[in-house]
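Structure first, sequence second, as always.
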């Protein structure tokens, strides 16, 4: 119930933030053309990706809270991760455009209206700062919302940089500061997006969750009373907050009712790592013997198949 209420509140914040961002993006693009400021136009482009980020975050939030069904047995938790990956990728693409345009402006500098730059930057600081404060609590532990939060953080820092640039240009007249500022903004955008790309891609490729050690998990499982050995161990993330594990566990030969206590202790040990979804197969024969049996059965099958021909 708490997660549902939190999701509804976050969804409302995302929708209001999206409307505010779209309105401000249109205003900043107009101001950028009017003042001939590349940094304002770059920031407007960044704001447009912020709007896309907020839209994708809202869509991802909606889908990742949908329950599992017959076709999506794990639910839709990775929808938010996929949206985070697309969000971060869009930031990198817009940064490449900023690099290109900044290079052109360094070769052919243009005069800018620093008064407009400063005024728009101040307004952007208010808008982006307000959205960031609203998303601050929701972005913890949710990669999807954190991607949107990073979009807004990048835009806030860019706005501060534009304000500083407007002051420098006003007092020095050095118009090269505008494209240089745009390059700095683009570098920060790429840097902040890289972490989201790596983490979301790791989840989509079913890599080991960040901060976990497969060796530590295996050691913790082997320490459980009744466990003789652990192999074929896999740990991955279903979403940003849900982790899963599958493993073969060697125990003494005993009836199924006797192994239930071992299973309970294993699950309890995995809760320490934040793993609450486990699939554990108990074995009573060492892995080497089991593999030999499989190879013998396979050889017999091939021998019989050859005789039939």
């Amino acid at each position: 119930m708490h997660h549902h209420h939190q999701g509804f509140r976050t969804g409302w914040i995302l929708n209001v933030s999206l409307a505010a961002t779209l309105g401000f993006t249109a205003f900043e693009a107009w101001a950028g053309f009017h003042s001939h400021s590349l940094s304002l136009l770059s920031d407007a482009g960044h704001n447009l990706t912020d709007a896309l980020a907020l839209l994708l975050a809202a869509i991802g939030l909606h889908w990742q809270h949908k329950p599992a069904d017959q076709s999506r047995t794990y639910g839709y938790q990775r929808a938010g991760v996929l949206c985070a990956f697309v969000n971060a990728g869009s930031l990198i693409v817009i940064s490449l455009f900023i690099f290109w345009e900044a290079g052109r402006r360094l070769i052919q500098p243009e005069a800018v209206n620093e008064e407009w730059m400063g005024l728009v930057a101040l307004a952007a600081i208010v808008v982006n700062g307000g959205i960031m404060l609203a998303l601050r609590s929701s972005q913890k532990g949710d990669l999807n919302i954190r991607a949107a939060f990073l979009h807004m953080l990048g835009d806030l820092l860019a706005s501060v940089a534009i304000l500083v640039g407007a002051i420098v240009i006003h007092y020095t007249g050095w118009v090269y500061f505008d494209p240089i500022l745009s390059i700095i903004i683009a570098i920060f955008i790429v840097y902040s997006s890289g972490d989201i790309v790596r983490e979301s891609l790791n989840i989509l490729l079913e890599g080991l969750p960040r901060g976990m050690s497969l060796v530590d998990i295996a050691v913790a499982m082997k320490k459980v009373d009744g466990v003789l050995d652990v192999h074929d161990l896999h740990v991955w993330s279903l979403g940003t907050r849900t982790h899963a594990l599958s493993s073969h566990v060697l125990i003494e030969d005993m009836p199924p009712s006797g192994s239930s206590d071992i299973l309970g202790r294993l699950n309890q040990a995995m809760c320490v790592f934040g793993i609450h979804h486990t699939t554990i197969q108990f074995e009573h024969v060492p892995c080497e013997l089991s593999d030999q049996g499989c190879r013998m059965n396979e050889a017999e099958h091939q021998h019989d198949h050859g005789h039939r021909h």
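Margin note: The longest strand covers residues 227-237.
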